[in-house]
Amino acid sequence: MHKDTAKGAAKDAAGSVKEAVGRATGNERLEAEGAAEKVAGKVQKGVGNLKDAARDVLKK
After folding, report:
1. What stretch of H or E contains 14?
2. What does each of the 60 residues of the chain score in pLDDT, given as a tens digit?
3. Of 16, 28, 34, 39, most Cβ neighbours within 10 A?
């Protein structure tokens, strides 16, 4: 597992929590920040997965 995958998963989880808290409290700004953080985390996870796949291909 690449470090980007782990960091992305953490960002995704933190964004989900932030988004849920924003939704529960009616804080639209916090909800939007959480949604943006969630997307950034998913992208970072994808980059990590691509790096893992590239490393696997290059090892062959």
Report:
1. helix 3-25
2. 779 999 999 999 999 999 999 999 999 999 999 999 999 999 999 999 999 999 999 987
3. 34
C-alpha R_g of the chain: 15
Contact 48, 8 (CB under 8 A): yes
> What's the CA gap between 52 and 58, in Å, rounded?
10
Q: Which amino acid is at 24?
A: A
Token pair belonging to 3: 């470090």
Q: Can you tell me the distance from the alpha carbon of 55 to that of 21, in angstroms, rounded to the nearest whole number?
A: 38
Helices (H) and strands (E) in the chain, counts: 2, 0
The total number of residues shown for the chain amounts to 60
